[in-house]
Amino acid sequence: MTAETILRDKLATCTRIFAMQQMLGLFGHISAYDPETGRVYMSPGQGADKSTLGPDDILVADLTGRVLDGDQRLPIEWPIHTALHEARGDALAVAHLHAPFATLFGIAKREFRPVTLQGSLFSDGLPLYREPRLVKTVEQGANLAKLVGDKRGAFMRGHGITVIGHDIEEMLYATLILEDEARKSVAAASLGELDTLSPEECAAFDAEVAFSMRSARAWGYYCRLEQRWDRQPGSGVTPFT
Amino acid sequence: MTAETILRDKLATCTRIFAMQQMLGLFGHISAYDPETGRVYMSPGQGADKSTLGPDDILVADLTGRVLDGDQRLPIEWPIHTALHEARGDALAVAHLHAPFATLFGIAKREFRPVTLQGSLFSDGLPLYREPRLVKTVEQGANLAKLVGDKRGAFMRGHGITVIGHDIEEMLYATLILEDEARKSVAAASLGELDTLSPEECAAFDAEVAFSMRSARAWGYYCRLEQRWDRQPGSGVTPFT
Amino acid sequence: MTAETILRDKLATCTRIFAMQQMLGLFGHISAYDPETGRVYMSPGQGADKSTLGPDDILVADLTGRVLDGDQRLPIEWPIHTALHEARGDALAVAHLHAPFATLFGIAKREFRPVTLQGSLFSDGLPLYREPRLVKTVEQGANLAKLVGDKRGAFMRGHGITVIGHDIEEMLYATLILEDEARKSVAAASLGELDTLSPEECAAFDAEVAFSMRSARAWGYYCRLEQRWDRQPGSGVTPFT
Amino acid sequence: MTAETILRDKLATCTRIFAMQQMLGLFGHISAYDPETGRVYMSPGQGADKSTLGPDDILVADLTGRVLDGDQRLPIEWPIHTALHEARGDALAVAHLHAPFATLFGIAKREFRPVTLQGSLFSDGLPLYREPRLVKTVEQGANLAKLVGDKRGAFMRGHGITVIGHDIEEMLYATLILEDEARKSVAAASLGELDTLSPEECAAFDAEVAFSMRSARAWGYYCRLEQRWDRQPGSGVTPFT
Question: What class is the A3-227 domain?
Answer without folding.
Answer: alpha beta
